[in-house]
TrEMBL record:
Annotated transmembrane regions: 40-57, 159-181, 213-235
Ranges where the record places region Disordered: 269-288
The protein, known as: Uncharacterized protein
Alphabetical keyword list: Membrane, Transmembrane, Transmembrane helix
Amino acid sequence: HIHLNGDCDANGNRFRSGQSYFPGTVSEMVHDYSDSEGKVFWAFCFVGAVMIFFSWYPTMLRNVYIGEQSNLCGISWISMRQYVPAPGMMILASIQTVPGLELSPTDRFAMALHMAGAGMLFIGYTCCEAHALRWVPFATCCRRRSRCEAGKSAFARKVCVAGIFLSYLLFAVAQLVIVHARPEERDEWGHLFGHKGRQLLDTASWRVKRFKVMSYLCEVMCGLFIIASHLSIWYHSEERHYDLPEILHRLQDPPTELAARRASEMLEGPLWLPRSQAPSAGAPGPER
């Protein structure tokens, strides 16, 4: 748990480093789901992931649909786009992270699942979107291009993909620096007298704190680019301009109307036949 008392711990004692606390990731900031920020983070992430999953937009929007012939290890790319990023976001939001590096085996397993969900969301979405755009390194492997208009639409989506990739790359570099820093320069977590759970005992030095700020900002930018990518797909989709009927018609008297439709088809031919092939009203009917 984190008590925001500036450069003091939960008991009011100043940290030895003299630095205030700053989270290295968004997940570290909201790791306690009993707090308000943890509840809000989980609610918005999980609801957003559920809405993306049940929209089935990879198969419903022409500017991202690429067919089922293009596949990876026998799995179509549209199936991967449907079943990888959104479930990864659900895993990321549902399995909370554990701050610090001195973790128990169960905590390490939970962290591995949390990081797997993050990879499914960020890396999975980046690869699927780059493949749909036939962008580097997928310029020649996709047989069918999605109906993504040239010009502003494709440019905006490529900018978002590049932003996701670069932000996640810088995030990974910053995390490697933090993990391999000297123990006395990192945050120290443990048990504090008079408080339950893991408490912040000492904050990281300014040298490590700079990379924590960089890591946090890069992760935030990565998430913002994913949101911008989805908004760009929606804004430039053809389906957004469809005018749906205001009234859904229904049969008032199903037996009577169905019988009348069958009689009409016998006289005029099925609706799907061309007019030239439909029998005329005076043509003889079938022999009984």
